[in-house]
Amino acid sequence: MSASQGGILELDDIQSGALFERPSPYVGTYLLLRVDDRSAGRELVRRLHSVAQSQRASGHSSQGTSLTVAFTYQGLKALGVPQASLDSFAPEFRVGMAARADHLGDVGDSSPQNWEYPLGTDQVHVAVAALSPDSTQHQLAVDKARRARRELGGIELVWSQDCYQLPTGRTSFGFKDGIGQPTIEGLGRPGVNTRGRPLKAGEIILGYPDESGELPPMPTPEILGRNGTYVVFRKLHTRVAAYRRYLAAKSSSRAEEALLGAKMVGRWQSGAPLALAPEQDDPDLGSDPVRNDDFLYGDDPRGFKCPVGAHARRANPRDAFDGDASVDVRLHRMIRRGTSYGPMLPDGVLEDDGVDRGIIFVFAGAHLRRQFEFVKTQWLNDGIFIGAPREKDPLVGGNDGSGHFTIPQHPIRRRLQDLPPFVTTRGGEYCFAPGLRGMRWLAELDS
Questions:
Q1: What pLDDT digit, counting tens, does each position of 63-80 carry?
Q2: C-alpha dist (Å) from residue 36 to 244, 251, 429
Q3: DyP dimeric alpha+beta barrel domain location, by residue (predicted)?
Q4: CA–CA distance, 403 with 175 (Å, rounded to integer)
Q5: Which residues, 6 or more positions from 73, have their beta carbon under 8 angstroms from its beta carbon?
Q6: DSSP sequence for 258-296
Q7: What is the value of pTM for the model shown?
């Protein structure tokens, strides 16, 4: 099928990690590899392709072990992809995340000079994510990937990170994560938000019409670009003790701490949205995957239930811009995956224990600039769109200790002052996850 024809999603060619929900709970490992020998690199891709293809054939999409493979620009170059093809990728992908750091707000402690080596350098070529609901299955998958690397001279493992999702779905800050993913047209799965239509497949997977009705720019040749997606990988260290101390300092009781945290995030720790539970937590609502995402913000324009500057509302304003023809929220939707790493800080602990913990953030979509980069710079790191230019996202924004956060309430609003940084970027990469046919094409290159 020609890319110009769009068409029905070719699910048998799309890597499972690009579209399908992850199992819950799960354990996982991210591996980053460097290709020093082109022939060995192509053989590695052939073996990884064989594993990924067998998973798709057996239907392992959301409940079994999944292996997702992606490549940086330097990785595609190391494999011998022709320059004309390399030049057809998105400019942001070609220069890499480190070169975009100032634009993304990765400055100060989050700047590339402070990233974990070799993140952000030309030493990262291949990214492999192995996830499984079962630790035994997971270890077998990781061992298989490591064994394939060891058997091939000229391939080096340069970085790895174990990760997990708890049965509660909560991350190190204590909030349930992974809620609010877009429903993709053609995937054959009903959406949980009954108030919105499915997102066009071309917003996530290349080779299909997107929300504009057009085909997004796609890398060439077609066999490489079609059914692929761009992947953003970021390691984010969370300053949990500092976050807890800030809430405690601004509150007079544990109940007020919980409410203040919910106001900053836009949801209670259980996952219950403030839009539906503005006064107190509702764990039953938070644990209901149908109800906890079935809401809009149109009936709360001033943010008395959920502040307009809250993290969840910034990242997905939903219907907040209805009537404003200059902003189409659907053009900035993306698939987001948050995976915890490091042990949780025990409840009640207010001092940093020196242990590295946080979130491996993964984004998948067809447009690096107008999806991930737009949301990061225009909605999370800026407040112009909510009428508060100096305000950044209170949880993940690039705050430096001088920022503030406004909570609308009667009779007068409350403004939190001196917001410190609660999240520090430890590194990241822009990658491309091709379809299975694209992986085979890479493995069979003979240049």
A1: 678 889 999 999 999 999
A2: 45, 55, 19
A3: 53-135
A4: 22
A5: 86, 89, 93, 94, 95, 96, 430
A6: HHHHHHHHSB-TTS-BTTT-SSS--HHHHT-TTGGG---
A7: 0.94
